[in-house]
Amino acid sequence: MNELIRGLLFLPEQLSEHARAVDQLHFFIITTTMVAAAGVFATAIYFFVRYRRRSETDVTPHVTPTAIHEVLFIGVPLFFFLLWFAIGFPLYVNLQSPPPGAMDVYVQGKKWMWKFAYPGGPNSLDVLRVPAGRPVRLLITSRDVIHSFFAPALRLKQDALPGRYTQTWFTADRPGTYEIFCAEFCGIGHSAMLGRLVVMPADEFDAWLAEQRRGLAQAQDAAPGPGEAVLSASNLVAEGQRVAAAQGCLKCHSVDGSRHIGPTWVDLYLRREKLKGGEIVVVDEAYLTKSMMDPGAQLVDGYQNVMPTFQGKLSPPEAAAIVEYIKSLKTPAVRSGPSEGPAYESIPRK
Amino acid sequence: MSPSLASDPTVPAYNARNYLNEPATGLKSWAFTLDHKRIGVMFLVATTVAFALGGLFALLIRLELLTPGPTIMDAMTYNRLFTLHGVVMIFLFMIPAIPSGFGNFLLPIMLGAKDVAFPRLNLLSFYLYLLGAAVALYGMVHGGADTGWTFYTPYSTTTQTNVVPILLGAFILGFSSVLTGLNFIVTTHTLRAPGMTWDRIPLFVWSIYATSIIQILATPVLGMTLLLVALEHAFAWGIFDPARGGDPVLFQHFFWFYSHPAVYIMILPAMAVISEVVCAFSRKNIFGYKAVAYSSLGIAFVGFFTWGHHLFTSGQSAFDSGIFAVLSMFVAIFTAIKVFNWTATLYRGSIAFRTPFAYFVGFLFFLVFGGMTGVALATASLDIHWQDTYFVVAHFHFIMVGSTVMAFLAALHYWFPKITGRTYPEGWGLVGAVLVILGFNFTFIPQFLLGNSGMPRRYFSYPERFWALNVASTAGASVLAFGLVTVLVYVLVSLRWGPIAGSNPWRSRGFEWDTPSPPPVENFDTPPIITHQPHLYHDVAQDPAQSPAPEPSHAR
Fold first, then answer.
1. Which of B289, B339, B348 sits opposite A60 (nearest CB)?
2. Which residues does B476 contact at the CB level (< 8 Å), separation at least 6?
């Protein structure tokens, strides 16, 4: 029965006890609504037919309500509305009351990605891994504008506000991969701000977390100390790819030549770009690093000034690694002479 | 007896000396008119143009959503379009259409007055509307905002788009709204005809009066809020920006303190229309006059204390959410009272299924489901799932388009003979009504299901599992658009070629039908004296020969 109504209403699967309880309330409300509406409409339709105008000289009586009508008109809907509230509101309060001992995950929304951080590591972008059967508390904030963390399978949503933390919690029933949306409008990447909720069996999750933390420790151990040799250029490309993915650069800049929120990185190095003011620049190392630190200063024509600054967020070696990575992204075609314009074309409109 | 009536009372007569041709017919005589009827007609024309513009934006949005990826535009254009759709529909159509259009035309006539209390303010209100619309239009042409009509901070204060002209446009439109509300309140208090006691005031006036209270008390808060956003956008003062010590949620409280009552600015006038239509076409007195009249005031009052139900996911305390949830349910009770009373009015009536009545049926359907889904949202825990999804979109379109546009169309058809002196083609009217009501259902029922399945609103692209329902919704929108165009065509044709209506083609006992059609400049040939409530049908034989009342019946 539950599955049948859920299917009829197009509700996603129920991943938690809370989701099932909310759906039960949903089913109860929709049933009472349909019965009440059917009652009103059946009465109205009966009146349409029974009291249809038979002649232009019809005479109608003067009918006014008695006290019993007024009590019924107010009392019946009030009873049901308050009953719905009495069932629904405790569920809402429950969502605001995480159980003690819940595992904390810090959630940061920013244009246009989700960053998840576990105390003690690791961090991840857009993929939230949680253990099945254990309560998880999300501590949610935003780096720029308001976003909203929305996991339909959990019937869970909580706004991510800049400058403060909000919280919510859940216990996912069973392993699987589920959707995470941003539900508060946040700009041109709003509908691309998608995440994945990966629920793992508890023991697998523990193993994954331990391995990630070991990896972090090794990376710290292997980090070059002061005065040690820096990474070679080929390593810089790999490092740049890693940093670009971790910082979310690739959410807006494609590495396959397609036009996205920002210009593609393929063949970007030494390309001649037309700026918003009509000026032409050659994309060199200086332009690339300036664009990371002050993106609006020299904006490529046809794009919105939406990129946040990475000043203070990228260390100089990381910025250099990204530049090297961009330089490595070339189409194999051999070209003689410099390109006379953007190598990309906007996607043809259908 | 009025000399303008034909000697044979069974042949409908066109009142030759009316507000349309007196004192003059030139453009100047309209531009400087102080006649509430002409100002009402100008508002109707202007808001209808805005409705067409907003509808065009809606169609473009639906076309874009026909496929999961980009269809006909890029994300930025899409974001601007849904912002413009919201701004135009709400500030330029929904808020002024019924009160400033039909309200201006009818309220003084229903009260037996010659005009509103402040005719010059009334004209100023119309020009403020045009000015606000022009400023907002300038903003749309020069960049256009991408914030949504809700202007949530800090997005709206940091966006690169040209949001300030649109904010200022809405700010100016607020003054138009306040002046109209003020005018109606003073008119209702001071210009009632002899014998028009408070318990004889037509229900249309009661509901418009309640609307006016909200317009006066809530609109200044919106004006202040929009101004703060504009200042913050221009000078980065840090009122709403947490990086400068501001509070982004403060904006939401300010905004919804106006914009939730504004929902009632949009729906109360619709209820005003429906109370008149249901009486006229069932030829019955309203079942509970006091219940319907006072519930309008109840909605206006309690509507001020429910704004927090827009903030259930914002981190607002659970205690606050509980208070707002319960209060929201009380507003729904007042609406339920009205629904029951309208239905009970049909009991033992003489129901004529004309076009306005068909729209009443549509209105009832949409209000019941729009209202009940509203109460379901107010349970707080269900809102957590539905907030900012297509469920909310469908819910408020059921109330605003479903109920308010149905009432607008009902009013257009019901009072068309009074305003123009002519009738529209009844057959085409019913065809149009069926198309509009079906098209509307096909458009928005899939959106309820999309919301259930978790599709957030304001999405330019979406996962493929939402595809089928989006196609269904777009198909429905095309039927709705076709229906509305049908209505527009026959209404325009009838303006000129419609058959002469006569003073009271419906044989309604609303007071506005006691004057010839179109009404004379002074509204009544002889000043009326009110002796009873409107819509009393039990004490008159419904004799067609009596039809175009030779004398105002309440003057007897």
1. B348
2. B439, B440, B441, B442, B443, B444, B445, B446
Mean pLDDT of B206-212: 96
- Give the domains, in start order, of chain A with CATH numbers: 2-95 (1.10.287), 103-219 (2.60.40.420), 233-328 (1.10.760.10)
Segment 147-206 of chain A within 8 Å of chain B by CB: 148, 150, 152, 155-159, 161-164, 166, 179, 181-192, 194
Say whether A181 and B454 touch across the interface (CB within 8 A): yes
User: Is A79 within 8 Å of chain B by CB?
Assistant: no
Lowest mean pLDDT of A61-70, A83-92, B305-314, name the range. A61-70
d(CA B150, CA B533): 42
B527 upstream amide cis, omega within 30 of 0: no
Residue A180: beta bridge partners? A195
CA distance A26 to chain B (A): 7
The answer to pTM > 0.90 is no
Of A278-292, B199-213, B292-306, the poorest mean pLDDT is in: A278-292
Q: Is A308 on the interface with B (CB under 8 A)?
A: no
Task: Kindly list the domain boundaries of chain B, sorted by start residue.
Answer: 33-555
Span B33-555: which CATH code?
1.20.210.10
Which residues of chain A have a CB within 8 Å of the CB of B398? Answer: none
To the nearest 10 degrees (0 to 180), the angle between helices B467-497 and B426-452 is: 160
ipTM (interface pTM): 0.89
Contacts of B142 (CB under 8 A, 6+ apart): B162, B165
3-state DSSP call for residue B262?
Answer: helix
Nearest CA distance, A349 vs chain B (angstrom) = 6
Query: What is the residue-wise DSSP string for B58-85?
Result: HHHHHHHTTSSS-SSS-HHHHHHHHHHH
A&B contacts, CB < 8 Å: 289
